[in-house]
Amino acid sequence: MNKIFNFFLVSDSTGETLDRIYLALKAQFPDNNYKIHHFAFMRTTTQTATLIEACKKAENPIILYTLVEKQTTNHIINECKTFNIPCFGLLDYLIPQFEKIFNQKATLKPSGQHKLNKEYYRKIEAMQFTLQHDDGQKLDTAVDADIIILGVSRTSKTPTSIYLGERGFKVSNIPLVPHQTLPNEIFKSSALKVGLVIDPNRLSDVRKTRMNILNDKKSSTYVNMETIYAELEESKKIFTSNKIPIIDVTRKSVEETAASIIKIIEIQKQQQND
């Protein structure tokens, strides 16, 4: 039986950075069993005492932390040495190195990445736009998007849009529905247009799962393989005729699909600058 490793993610802010690092590490060692414990906004010795007590009671504890306040950091490091708890500071090496490169001292201010500045409000605006233009809503203003995502039903348009919205992109996602024609303005828009496709068998499975969740037993054509093949072929024709880049999402996570879209944007910008 595989060991259980208890990861304690300790941050003086929200812990978003740690979550992503943890998932990346976990993916490299998939055969182990893991439990995750979040300790966000860690800033007092009382909080660190609670953390260490929890680690002492856990099987195979490991601490990952992103802390910038030295007193809290040193206290955790010393306690970990005392109780032989593996402890890794993700910023401990980077900050001193960048102080040398930039020839200036770091602010060591917790939550420094969460300032309520123009960038923050730009992201809020992008998220609001994206949510308002989900699933073909507000087609009259969809052309104002940075990105327009097209595809048949259940090709991950909404989660991909939301992920991109969180990154600061205004996104419209529009379903391609049989026997319905999109306005020409959508295709003439200056927004980046991207078409999502998926393996027909995979799409059938996804749609069946969706129907089971909704307890919908009437939409037989929705999961009919002939219908699915026809929908996908028609979508590909639309993408090809309008010179829209196509991304196959069959084996892609939402993050990978979004990264592919961002890469297309970067390539287009590079081509415009050349």
- The CATH topology assignment of the largest domain is Rossmann fold
Reported CATH architecture of the largest domain: 3-Layer(aba) Sandwich
Adjacency order of strands in the biggest sheet: 2-1-3-4
Principal-axes shape call: globular
Distance between the termini: 57 Å
Number of helices: 10
When the domains are counted, the total is: 2
Report low-confidence residues grouped into runs of 5 or more. Answer: none
Major pleated sheet: 4 strands, parallel
Strand fraction band?
Answer: 15-25%
* CATH class wording of the largest domain: Alpha Beta
Bin the helical content.
Answer: 40-55%
Helix/strand structural class:
alpha/beta
Rounded mean pLDDT score: 92
Helices and strands, in order, run as: EHEHEHEHHEHEHEHHEH
Rg, Cα atoms, Å: 24 Å
The total of beta strands comes to 8
Descriptive terms for the model:
274 residues, alpha/beta, Rossmann fold, four-stranded parallel β-sheet, 48% helix
Q: How would you sum up this structure in a few lines?
A:
This protein is α/β, with parallel strands linked by helices and 274 residues long. It has helices at residues 16-28, 45-57, 70-83, 94-102, 118-132, 157-166, 184-188, 200-214, 225-241, 254-273; strands at 4-11, 33-39, 61-66, 87-89, 147-151, 171-175, 192-197, 246-248.
